[in-house]
Amino acid sequence: MFTKAIVRRPGKSIIYGITSSPELGKPDYDLAIKQHDAYIEALKHRGLEVTILEADENYPDSCFVEDVAVLTKDFAVITNPGAPTRKGEVNGITDVIRRFYPDSKIEYIREPGTLEGGDVMMVGNHFYVGLSGRTNMEGIKQFGDILRKYGYKLTVVTLKEVLHLKTGVSYLENGNLLVAGEFIYKDEFKDFNRIIVPENESYAANSLWINDKVLVPVGFEKTKNAIEKSGYEVITVDTSEFRKLDGGLSCLSLRF
C-alpha cells in the first residue's frame, strides 16, 4: 500500500516537451494544469499524502517526475535519464528525496549508465526493467547491483516498439498484469494473469494501481471494462495533454 506521492507541476514550457506524436498537437498549458489538479485529487482520494513541487521551466518534461527516481520501502535510486534534455532534472529531485530517505539509503545511477523510472516496474521484491532507448544495459547493471544489495531481484525486458516499459505494461497487484502490443506474448510475463489491452486502446496500458483501485485514462472503455471484470474499482482521469508528450498516469508521480 502507498502512503505518499511526489508530483511536479507542469510548466508553461511543457509545449516544448519531447514527443513521438506531433500529430496530437502541442499541450494546452491551462488544460494541463486542470488535469494535473484532478490527478493530485485522485491520489489524495486514495489516501496518499502528496508533496507538490513547483514547476521547473528549464525542463519541459519535468512534470513526468517518475523518470528521475525509483522509490521503494527500503531505499531510493536517483536515476540518470537517457534523454539529454532531461538529465538536469535529477538536480531538482535529490533534496526532495532526502526528506524521506537518509543519505545511506539513497543510491545513484552514474554515467555512462542511463535509467528512467518509466522503464522500471516493481512486482513485490522483483523488478522488471526495460532495455530501451532511454535505459541502457550499463544503467540496468548498476541498478541490478543496487537491488542485490537490498535483497531484490531483476529481470531485463527488451523493448522494440515503445518508449518505456510501462508504456505497454502495468502491474495491478494480485498477479494481474495489464499488457499491450509487444508485451502480450513476452515470455517474461507468462506467469501473470494477463489483461489484454486492445490495439486501438494501447495508451490505456499505462494505468495505475493505487491501494486496491486502478486509475485509468479517460476514453478507453474496453480497457476500463476489462479491468473492472478483473475485480477492480476504476477511477478515470483525463491525461489528454500529457499524452501529447508520450506521458501517462504513472509518469506523473512517484508513489511510495
Structure in words:
- Helix content is 20%, strand content 24%.
- It is an alpha/beta fold.
- The strands form five sheets. A three-stranded mixed β-sheet has the order 2-1-15, covered by helices on one side. A three-stranded mixed β-sheet has the order 3-4-5, with no helix packed on it. It has a three-stranded mixed β-sheet with strand order 6-7-8, covered by helices on one side.
- The longest helix has 17 residues.
- The mean pLDDT is 98.
Can you lay out the helices and strands and say which pair or pack?
Blueprint: E1 4-8, H1 29-45, E2 49-53, E3 69-71, E4 76-78, H2 94-97, E5 106-108, E6 120-123, E7 126-131, H3 137-149, E8 153-158, H4 165-168, E9 169-171, E10 176-179, E11 193-196, E12 208-210, E13 213-217, H5 221-229, E14 233-237, H6 240-243, E15 254-255
Parallel strand pairs: 1-2, 4-5, 7-8, 10-11, 13-14
Antiparallel strand pairs: 1-15, 3-4, 6-7, 9-10, 12-13
Q: Any descriptors?
A:
256 residues, alpha/beta, L-arginine/glycine Amidinotransferase, Chain A, three-stranded mixed beta sheet, 20% helix
How would you spell out the order of helices and strands? Answer: EHEEEHEEEHEHEEEEEHEHE
Q: Mind telling me the C-alpha Rg?
A: 17 Å
Strand order of the largest sheet: 2-1-15
Q: Spans with pLDDT under 50 lasting ≥5 residues?
A: none
Q: How far from one another are the termini? A: 8 Å
CATH architecture: 5-stranded Propeller
Question: Might you state the CATH topology name?
Answer: L-arginine/glycine Amidinotransferase, Chain A
The total count of strands amounts to 15
Q: CATH first level: which class?
A: Alpha Beta
Overall form: globular
By CATH's scheme, which homologous superfamily applies? L-arginine/glycine Amidinotransferase, Chain A
Q: What's the number of helices?
A: 6
Sheet with most strands: 3 strands, mixed
Q: How many structural domains are formed by the residues?
A: 1
